[in-house]
Amino acid sequence: MSEFGDFEFERKFLVGDMPAVAASDPSPALIAQAYLFASDGYAVRVRLQGPAPARLDVSTAELVGALGGEAIGTMTAKGPAAGGTRYEAERDLDPLVAGQIVARAEHVVLKVRSSVWLGEDGWVIDRFLGGNAPLVLAEVERDSPVVDLVIPSFCTTEVSEDDRFRNEHLAFHPFSGWAGDYRNELELLGPTFVDTLGCNHFDGT
């Protein structure tokens, strides 16, 4: 835990296509997370995470079962985000209990996470499954505010402050239902990047 306690500092970006660098992670993880409550930026989440199985085109219950004894369970309470900062208190949960909750939950997000190191920062690249496919998001997290960031070229636009791309929103409103409208919006308005967190540096420019 950082000196800031139960707070996370991250920035999130939309990715057009799965970047080649994601393949450098030899052991991507499958994440199944159920949202038991989500309102006005507050959320309670139960997560089960373990090695991604070879087959992903199966039901949520089958995916959860495939994680087996290597899975890690957590329960997290989240507060509203502001300026790339969000309250997040995470505690360990018995993976068997976490799996049973996720398997029975109505609002679940499934994704395969690849972790890569780019420059001075560790990034995660999430490829969403089910109703949120083909969404791909990239996140960078630090122990303090994410300032003066080098943004990789595969990042299309920043969505750190767009609540539609928060997992709790995706659990209740899957991306497939509004992807077309969002693409039209992005084409009309163009990409944007948060400019209140130091200087943005774009990789390759």
TrEMBL record:
Q: Which domain of life is it from?
A: Bacteria
Q: Show where the CYTH domain sits.
A: 6-172
Q: Where is the active site?
A: 35
Q: What is this protein called?
A: CYTH domain-containing protein
